[in-house]
Write a structure and sequence with these properties.
about 160 residues; alpha+beta; Immunoglobulin-like; four-stranded antiparallel sheet; three-stranded antiparallel sheet; 3 helices; about 30% strand
């Protein structure tokens, strides 16, 4: 796999740090990523999402959900059993994991639930009122401006 150096992009652009960081993160990700634990991402409407992660064998105390620097970090560490168990077959993986999801601008985590071995994390995009599209009223007649009249306040 080729390695790309994005340093010239950082030097020659202003305000596009997120795009360069995203490209850098995608380029450095391993092709054979860990697929444990499996997860789904659902979209309910234009601004509501849910990430569902299969966490069979983990209790709520073993799970940790954290938002840090536009990233959602879900991790789990199973407490060691004090009693030694002897398994004939062990197919339920309860190994420690950490999953990271990069959150888009204005996406907030609104809640998390742990039901039937599924960790559900609800997300909502909350765009500030100033960034939402707004309708501009169009007036019927243009304002007439007299070019020969000088405002007294602007002269002084």
């Amino acid at each position: 796999m080729r390695n790309f150096d994005f340093a010239p992009l950082y030097r020659s652009t202003v305000g596009f740090d997120q795009i360069a960081n995203l490209m850098d993160r995608v380029a450095t990700n391993d092709v054979a990523q860990n697929s444990y634990p499996p997860y789904n991402i659902e979209k309910f409407d234009d601004d509501s999402y849910r990430i569902s992660i299969a966490v069979a064998g983990f209790s709520e105390a073993d799970l940790n959900v954290e938002v840090r620097e536009k990233s959602l970090i879900v991790s789990a560490r199973k407490a060691d059993d004090a009693t030694e168990r002897q398994y004939l077959h062990r197919g339920i993986a309860t190994r420690a994991f950490e999953r990271r999801f990069h959150l888009a601008d204005h996406v907030q985590v609104t809640g998390a639930t742990h039901v039937d071995g599924m960790l559900n994390i609800d997300l909502e995009r909350q765009v500030p009122e100033a960034l939402k599209p707004r309708q501009i009223q169009i007036s019927g007649s243009p304002r007439s401006i007299e070019k020969d009249v000088v405002d007294a306040k602007s002269v002084n």
